[in-house]
């Protein structure tokens, strides 16, 4: 997949390793191994996960608060959050709905999900400040 001019996909390098693969006894004694590297792997995975979220493809969990909801991917939430990982491991439903605590507002949830999928967010100082507390920071710090 070519995303925004970046080259994606595996690319072989010429680094060789001794034949010590634990996967095949025969291979260990008679073959060299090459290191394969996927150029821009992290940025491509981030882009793909975000595209899947935007297209609602393969979503398998619903997050709800303040009478609103959004869909996400259990594997992404679990990878980024011990809080979500515990809830999802304890609830093996195919498509669970997680109702978040009342102190998380929907706009904060949207920021949190964007942060989880992209690894960064841009918010104004006003969006960070709610009732003298840093609402999004508190949400990220205590929940994620």
TrEMBL record:
Keywords annotated in UniProt: Nucleus
Keyword Cytoplasm attributed: no
Keyword Nucleus attributed: yes
Main location: nucleus
SMART domains named among the record's database cross-references: BTB (SM00225)
Cellular compartment(s): Nucleus
Compositional bias of kind Polar residues: 13-23
Positions of the UniProt region annotated as Disordered: 1-23
One BP term from GO: regulation of transcription by RNA polymerase II
Domain of life per record: Eukaryota
GO cellular component terms given for this protein: nucleus
PANTHER family reported in the protein's UniProt record: BTB DOMAIN TRANSCRIPTION FACTOR, PIPSQUEAK, ISOFORM O
Protein name (record): BTB domain-containing protein
């Amino acid at each position: 997949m070519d995303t925004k001019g970046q080259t994606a996909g595996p690319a072989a390098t010429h680094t060789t390793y001794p034949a010590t693969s634990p996967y095949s006894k025969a291979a260990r004694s008679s073959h060299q191994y090459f290191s394969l590297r996927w150029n821009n792997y992290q940025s491509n995975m981030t882009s793909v996960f975000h595209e899947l979220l935007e297209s609602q493809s393969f979503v398998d969990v619903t997050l709800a608060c303040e009478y609103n909801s959004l869909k996400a991917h259990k594997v992404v939430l679990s990878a980024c959050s011990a809080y979500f990982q515990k809830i999802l491991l304890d609830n093996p439903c195919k498509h669970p709905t997680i109702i978040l605590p009342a102190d998380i507002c929907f706009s904060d949830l949207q920021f949190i999900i964007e942060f989880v999928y992209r690894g960064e967010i841009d918010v104004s100082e006003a969006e960070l400040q709610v009732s003298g507390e840093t609402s999004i920071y508190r949400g990220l710090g205590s929940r994620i």
